[in-house]
Specification:
The structure holds two protein chains of two kinds. By secondary structure, chain A is α/β, with parallel strands linked by helices. In chain A, strands 2-1-3-4-5 form a five-stranded parallel beta sheet, sandwiched between helices. In chain A, strand 4, helix 4 and strand 5 form a beta-alpha-beta unit. In chain A, helix 1 crosses helix 5 and helix 2 packs parallel to helix 3. The longest helix of chain A is centred in the last third of the chain and has 13 residues. Chain A is globular and about 35 Å long. A five-stranded antiparallel beta sheet of chain B has the order 2-1-5-4-3. In chain B, strand 6 and strand 7 form a beta hairpin. Chain B starts with a helix and ends with a helix. The chains are: A alpha/beta, B alpha+beta. At the A-B interface, helix 1 of A face helix 14 and helix 15 of B.
Chain lengths: 132, 858
């Protein structure tokens, strides 16, 4: 299992999962929640944006196809806010269409994962995102 | 063009035809050759005849000349002998024998050989031109006695001196003492005659006695013929002069003449072959001339043919069109001056004709094309056009568009005037306008024109004055303003359709995306948790949580796939619906029970008790009602009452589900029943669904011949969904056996088994429906595990209403405890069968038997 000793600089990292599907939120939660990470959840784009501004999570996992504000809209909001420059964003998409992926990466996402995804991959991506 | 072609063909009528010049020339040549041949034959014949005649004439002449010569020579000898006899010396010689004398026989003419003798009367020769022969030489000569007294000329006799056949010419010496006799040999006469008189014809001479029986001399073979009998020859056979006797193999033509002084006949024979050979030469010459003449004529004919007839024939071919025009050059090159001139004239004429014809054709074609173009413009013009007579106002022509637009057939149009297509109230105004002379071209309107169906359209009329045959006419373009407006509307509609097509395409793309999303989301959970379970140590609670999510998502996936399949089957008409009478109230009630939520607002129902049976596939309609109720709940997030009702509308029952939820915007109402359609409003973002429910409902209702609609006052005002199903026609539902069975497959099997035993059946999918039908049945097959009212309860009601007589076979999966079995027996059940293979057949057998028994008993 993961053995990571928190340092003074490395405070507990917060990961936000924004997805309208509770089962996906539960999956992400179960995958990532550990001694190193705290996971918070949002069920739609608006809620996600509110939490991002309030909690300022280190990593944001955004479902692209969400009611209300879509994942891409939230991503653009993050990128347009300089104070959130350090926020890493991973997109979760059930669409494998190139257009979405391209739009996501153009908008500044660090990674993307296509549903169904491997939880271990997700964890790797989150770790990698933090090294950037 | 076709007309000219026709004119060039020969007419079919009788036609007098003379012979061609060529044929005449051939005939002429044949005649010429025939005449030449005849001439040649004639020339030969004439030449031969001529030769014969001439030969014969020559022969006659020869005979006469020879006869004359013989006569002269005889005369000369007679004179000579007479002179000698008169000479006294001769008498003295006779008187003084032994005196030397000298006589000389000077032969000449015909008689070249002979001798002169002075003969004593006793026949002794005194003196002779030949040496004397002693003795009385001529004592035996018969002529001697005569000769002593008078001159004698006699022949033939055999000269005793020479032994030759000879003639004697004697003259008496005075005193009867002797005679002077010239004895001439006859044999040389012929050759002598031939030598002197034969001439070019080489005549043959024959001297005979007058009776022609004895030959005296002959120019041919003289020694043989002298004194010979001619008996048996052609000379002797006929008394008449012989023309062509055969002697020594040569055919000759003979002339004859008599020597008057002697009883001799002279024949002169001309050689026929020689004469003919000459004639042959002559005729050959003549024939050569004829041949030359024929040759010259042929040359003339050839020249005439080559220079006149042939060129004329060529010219004629060119004129008739059988030969190319270049053939004229050959005519000009080869013909006689006149023919050449004719050909050249013809060529010029043809050139002129071609030129003028081409000019005329061009102008005719131009006119034709122009007319065709105008006609096409008229016929094919999309706006109605017609031609009418200015005086009578009658239609003269109308185009297709007018026929199509106005509804009159072309014939109907042509039987009308332009007044007839105007509304009656407009006619006076039109006639008034028409009294004034119209400009050659004008545009008026809008006018009102009446169509055949009675409707009126607005028209702008453009017209031009034209001549049509001998009519003063106007051609009218009736611009249809109404049609224009309609077209504009259609255009707008078509744009709208194109938009909706684009919309459809977009919806399809969205559907693909939606399906992808709908499938991937549950998959992501299932796969993700499975991986977590496989790779991590988890607490039992976590495991249970994970598995619960996986199960839930798996079911969701299953529902989605099922919905998809159902929809695709419904849309492809592949879902088998089993229609049967059903109690719609019971069906709705059962559906409502699924959504009864003690915490939420109750569902109100407005279901009259006297609703008729409906004819539906119960499972499907149950699904529709359930789906509508489910939606009503989902889209009423803050609660609010739900109302379900049913009412009869004509031959249908209309069922509605009304909620007081989020409502539906007006523009979405028409699209609600499409696949994956979702109202795009934030208030329903969290409401889940496959997006296929209403599409499935629509397909099911339509498969029942019904309609499904949605009504909403707008967002926040709630929504009402209502649909119709057909009512059962009472008399249509009859049958021997009532099958009460909720499993449609098994019910179907039972009905088939009953039918195989001659029993008709009715099927009720629940007990409530069965209650409606039970009065009509003679037997019942009953399942105990039924939706709604259980089978046992139904059985009790059946017995209560129908009495104990009705045979009932129970077929069920239910495990019966002894108490239940007992109560069934008490209810008078014929048999209780457990569902399994063969149960349907067994139940059918039992019922068939009991019904027959019942029949016999009654």
């Amino acid at each position: 299992m993961r053995s990571r000793t928190p340092t003074a600089l490395e405070a507990l990292r917060t990961v936000l999962i924004a997805d309208d599907e509770s089962s996906i939120r539960l999956l992400v939660h179960a995958t990532i929640e550990s001694d190193d990470y705290v996971v918070i959840e949002a069920a739609d784009g608006a809620q996600a944006w509110a939490l991002i501004q309030k909690v300022r999570p280190t990593v944001v996992l955004l479902d692209v196809q969400m009611p209300g504000r879509s994942g891409l809209e939230v991503l653009r909001s993050i990128k347009s806010d300089p104070s959130l420059a350090g926020t890493r964003v991973i997109l979760l998409t059930s669409k494998a269409q190139e257009g979405d992926v391209e739009a996501g990466l153009m908008a500044g996402a660090d990674f993307y994962l296509t549903k169904p995804f491997s939880p271990l991959d997700l964890l790797t991506r989150v770790d990698e995102a933090l090294q950037l | 063009m076709g007309v000219q072609m026709r004119d060039r063909r020969p007419s079919g009528g009788p036609r007098r035809r003379g012979w061609s010049v060529r044929r005449y020339m051939v005939l002429f040549m044949v005649v010429l050759l025939a005449v030449a041949a005849m001439a040649a034959v004639a020339v030969r014949y004439i030449a031969e005849q001529d030769a014969r005649q001439s030969a014969l004439a020559d022969a006659n002449f020869g005979a006469r000349v020879a006869a004359t010569a013989i006569a002269n020579d005889l005369l000369l000898l007679q004179q000579t002998t007479a002179k000698l006899a008169a000479n006294p010396q001769v008498a003295s010689v006779l008187a003084l024998p032994g005196r030397p004398c000298g006589l000389n026989f000077a032969g000449g003419g015909a008689f070249s050989t002979g001798h002169i003798d002075i003969v004593k009367s006793d026949g002794t020769v005194i003196c002779s031109s030949l040496p004397l022969t002693s003795g009385s030489v001529y004592a035996a000569a018969d002529w001697l006695p005569t000769a002593i007294r008078s001159p004698v000329t006699e022949a033939p006799f055999v000269d005793p001196v020479t032994g030759q056949i000879s003639a004697v010419i004697a003259a008496p010496i005075a005193g009867g003492i002797g005679t002077v006799a010239a004895i001439v040999a006859l044999a040389p006469v012929g050759p002598n005659l031939a030598a002197t008189l034969g001439g070019t014809r080489q005549l043959e001479f024959l001297v005979t006695t007058n009776d022609t029986k004895t030959a005296l001399s002959r120019s041919l073979q003289p020694a043989r013929w002298a004194g010979k009998s001619l008996a048996g020859t052609a000379f002797a056979s006929s008394g008449t002069p012989v023309e062509r006797p055969d002697v020594d193999g040569t055919t000759r033509l003979y002339g004859r003449y008599s020597v008057t002084s002697m009883a001799w006949t002279v024949f002169a024979g001309a050689d026929e072959a020689a004469a003919l050979s000459y004639a042959d030469q002559l005729s050959n010459r003549g024939q050569a001339l004829i041949l030359a003449g024929v040759g010259i004529m042929l040359v003339v004919i050839f020249v005439v043919y080559r220079r006149i007839v042939d060129p004329i024939r060529q010219l004629s071919l060119v004129i008739r069109g059988s030969a190319p025009g270049e053939a004229l050059n050959a005519v000009v090159g080869a013909g006689a001056t006149e023919v050449t001139g004719l050909a050249e004239d013809f060529e010029k004429l043809m050139a002129t004709v071609h030129h003028e014809l081409a000019d005329r054709l061009t102008s005719e074609q131009t006119a034709l094309v122009s007319e065709r173009n105008y006609r096409m413009l008229f016929e094919g013009h999309p706006q109605p056009m017609w031609l009418y007579d200015v005086d009578s106002l009658a239609f003269l022509e109308v185009n297709d568009s007018a026929v199509a637009r106005y509804g009159y057939s072309r014939d109907e149009f042509l039987a009308m005037t332009t007044k007839d297509i105007r509304p009656p109230q407009d006619v006076p105004k039109f006639l008034e306008l028409n009294t004034k002379p119209l400009p050659s071209s004008d545009r008026t309107g809008p006018w009102r024109y009446a169509l055949k169906d009675g409707s009126t359209i607005q028209v702008m009329v453009t017209s031009h004055a034209v001549m049509f045959g001998d009519h003063h006419a106007r051609v009218v373009l009736a611009e249809d303003l109404t049609e224009g407006q309609r077209l504009e509307r259609e255009l707008a509609l078509s744009h709208a359709r194109a938009d909706s097509n684009a919309e459809l395409s977009r919806a399809k793309d969205e559907m693909v995306s939606m399906v992808s999303h709908e499938l991937r989301t549950p998959l992501a959970s299932i796969v993700g948790f499975a991986e977590l379970l496989a790779t991590r140590e988890v607490s039992p609670k976590q495991r249970n949580d994970y598995l619960a999510v996986m199960l839930q998502e798996g079911r969701r996936l299953t529902a989605l796939v099922n919905d998809f399949l159902d929809l695709s089957r419904l849309e492809g008409d592949r879902l088998t619906l089993r229609f049967a009478p059903a109690d719609i109230k019971a069906l709705i009630t059962r559906s409502i029970e699924l959504f009864s939520d003690p915490a939420g607002a109750p569902i109100e129902t407005h279901l009259p008790d006297d609703l008729p049976l409906v004819r539906v596939d119960s499972d499907s309609i149950f699904r529709v009602v359930t789906n509508l109720l489910s939606n009503a709940r989902k889209y009423s997030p803050v609660g609010g009452s739900i109302e379900v009702g049913a009412s009869v509308a004509e031959d249908k029952v209309e069922i509605y589900v009304q909620d007081k939820g989020l409502g539906i915007p007006a523009d979405a109402l028409s699209q609600l029943f499409g696949k994956f359609y979702r109202v795009d409003a934030r208030d329903r973002d969290t409401i889940k669904g496959t997006g296929l429910g209403l599409a499935i409902c629509k397909n099911i209702v339509e498969a029942h011949g019904g309609k499904i609609r949605a009504r909403s006052e707008g967002l926040g005002k709630g929504a009402c969904f209502y649909f119709t199903v057909p009512i059962v026609r009472e008399q249509a539902e009859t049958g021997d056996v009532l099958v009460v069975e909720d499993d449609s497959g098994f019910a179907h099997l039972l009905e088939a088994e009953l039918a195989a035993r001659g029993l008709s059946s009715m099927w009720a999918a629940d007990a409530e429906t069965a209650e409606h039908l039970m009065t009509k049945a003679r037997a019942v097959v009953l399942d105990l595990l039924l939706p709604g009212l259980p089978g046992e309860a139904f059985l009790l009601r059946l017995r209560a209403k129908q009495g104990p007589g009705l045979p009932v076979v129970v077929v069920t999966l239910k495990d019966l405890d002894p108490a239940e079995s007992l109560s069934l027996q008490k209810a008078g059940v014929t048999a209780v069968l457990r569902k399994g293979p063969g149960t349907a057949a067994m139940a059918a057998n039992l019922l068939a038997r009991s019904l027959v028994t019942e029949l016999v008993a009654s």
